[in-house]
Amino acid sequence: MFYFCYSSALDREATALWARDHGYPDFSLTSGQKARLAGFSLVADWPSNYWGGRVLSLRLDPGSSVEGILFELPDAWQQAVRHKEGVVTGVALEMESAVQLNSVNSSGESASVVAKVYVVHPQRKSLVGPKSERYFKILESAYRMWGLSTEALSSLT
User: Fold this and answer.
1) At a CB cut-off of 8 Å and minimum separation 6, what does 21 contact?
2) Residue 106 has pLDDT above 70, yes or no
3) Is 82 a residue whose pLDDT tops 70?
């Protein structure tokens, strides 16, 4: 299973605590590679009680792309990812999309794979209220740790 992640799941410590507390003691996201999801941009339209404000999701945005980390995970971890991303609780939807890897193949072309991507359920979207300061602080740190640009995060209101 390929999983494209742009969310707080990139924070290793927070994800490890979540996994332990939710019955997935072996689940971890420690090895992945930079990738891009074309046709989308980031938006803070996911109100989260846990984070105390709005957190990230994706919106269709032709001509734009979102940088993230692509993980190849055992199928046994699919339920943990679906739980972590909010599908199990009904706040998120799972979709599949082509994701461009930052590496190139033997022909000199950027390789792509179809990966699971998670977005807020349309009925849960809202721009009301502030962004979660705690969420974005953790996310900025995780983005730097993975070598991702924080520029797109800084521009969100």
Assistant:
1) none
2) no
3) yes
Q: What percent of the chain has pLDDT over 90?
A: 83
Output the pLDDT for position 155: 81
Q: Are 65 and 51 in contact (CB under 8 A)?
A: no
Burial 28-67, CB ≥16 within 10 A → b, else e: ebeebeebbbeebbbbbbbbbeebebbbbbbeeeeeebbb
Is residue 145 helix, strand or coil? helix
The residues near 10 (Cβ < 8 Å, ≥ 6 apart) are: 29, 68, 69, 139, 142, 143, 145, 146, 148
pLDDT value at 107 more than 80? no
List phi, psi (to 5°) of 93. -115, 145
What is the pTM assigned to this prediction? 0.92
Domains of the chain, CATH where assigned: 2-146 (3.10.490.10)
